[in-house]
Amino acid sequence: MNRKYLLIGICAVVAVAAYVTLRFAPVDDAVQAAPTKGNAMVAIQMPRIEGNAAIGQRIFETACAACHGNNAVGVEGAGPPLIHVVYEPSHHADESFQRAVAMGVISHHWQFGDMPPVEGLTRGDVAMVIDYIREIQRANGIN
Fold first, then answer.
1. Which end of the chain is more exposed for a tag (fewer CB within 10 A), N or C?
2. pLDDT string in tens for the chain (143-residue length)
3. Prediction pTM value
4. At what angle do helices 52-63 and 123-139 cross, to 10 degrees?
5. Which of these, 99, 101, 35, lies nearest to 73 by C-alpha position?
């Protein structure tokens, strides 16, 4: 019985890895240029940003965009895109963003190195940044 569950678990991991790889793979490698340091890592559709998310956008632009890019699309050579299935709410809940800002993050999904804590942001500030990120994620099918 344990072998059955182990096999199911392995199949699930392989399926998720294949989904992530295929969903974000370039359509035609010959057409897409090689990433250059400083380039955005993903293309997104921007929704209308209002309310707390608009305040979060301003905070993000000041405190986060240098590494995570304008509109959280990532910066090649600096920081990962947050508009990515890796950061969907079921994998990285809102509290994981709060903890990342407060305590930093040891690199585990990407090869950018560790993220240091971000000084000067309150939990309320980060909550509005999360609202901003989640708005963009939803507009791009990341729920």
1. N
2. 566 554 454 544 444 443 443 344 333 332 333 344 567 899 999 999 999 999 999 999 999 999 999 999 999 989 999 999 999 999 999 999 999 999 999 999 899 999 999 999 999 999 999 999 999 999 999 99
3. 0.73
4. 100
5. 35
Do the beta carbons of residue 26 and residue 35 sit within 8 Å?
A: no
132 sits in which H/E element:
helix 123-139
Q: Return the number of other C-beta atoms located less than 10 Å from residue 2's C-beta.
A: 6
> In the numeric block, which tokens belong to residue 95?
């509290």
For the chain, how far is it from start to end, CA to CA, in angstroms?
34
Q: How many CB atoms lie within 10 A of CB 22?
A: 8
CB under 8 Å to 99, separation ≥6 — which residues?
A: 105
* Residue 45 amino acid letter: Q
Q: How far apart are CA 36 and CA 28, in angstroms?
A: 17
Distance CA 28, CA 19 (A): 17
